[in-house]
From TrEMBL:
HAMAP family per record: RecR (MF_00017)
Domain Toprim intervals: 81-176
Gene3D superfamilies found in the cross-reference section: 3.30.60.80, 3.40.1360.10, 6.10.250.240, RecR Domain 1
This protein's name: Recombination protein RecR
InterPro entries: DNA_Rcmb_RecR, Rcmb_RecR, Rcmb_RecR_Znf, TOPRIM_dom, TOPRIM_RecR
Source organism of the structure: Agathobaculum butyriciproducens
Amino acid sequence: MELFAPPVERLIEEFAKLPGIGQKTAQRLAFHVLDLPKEDAERFADAIREAKAKTFTCRRCQNLTDSEICPICSDKTRNQKVICVVAEPRDVIAFERTKEYKGLYHVLHGTLSPMGHVGPDDIRIRELVKRVAEEETEEVILATNPDTEGEATAMYISRLLQPFGIKITRLAYGIPVGGHLEFVDEVTLTRALEGRKEL
């Protein structure tokens, strides 16, 4: 027996398909949308349609954009010889917020995951190798997450790029600012030791 009218049930089901959204949150979002004035609800629906229709991947770095080449790749003031490889478009935003990185990016749109049936052909590794082969790349920074999939992806890419004779680096991982040593796990502490640098 359906608890709500079929259109409401369908709306809840669609919200529940979003990552990190459980049934209760889906219901809350659905009722929020239903409470919106008609114009606001239509603007929301139009924003989804427009984003889906007008957003695609940059021909060069695979980041999301509304043009053939994204603004970062088009920016000639950036270091064109350094590529930071990230798993998802949201990782680019995280780096850009630091205002420290001035190179280019390559977005994989995922990581290798044998358990999830995600292999090298399912993410944008081929495009990265082609870029390195065709451009004057001097360094590739592997900035995938320090989890099993991220590590496996970084190792795989590292082996693929080795023949190009370029510098291949991995982000240093360690103790977060404000963290306490007694609460840090052994793997993180080991990484922090390995990634230590001279002051």
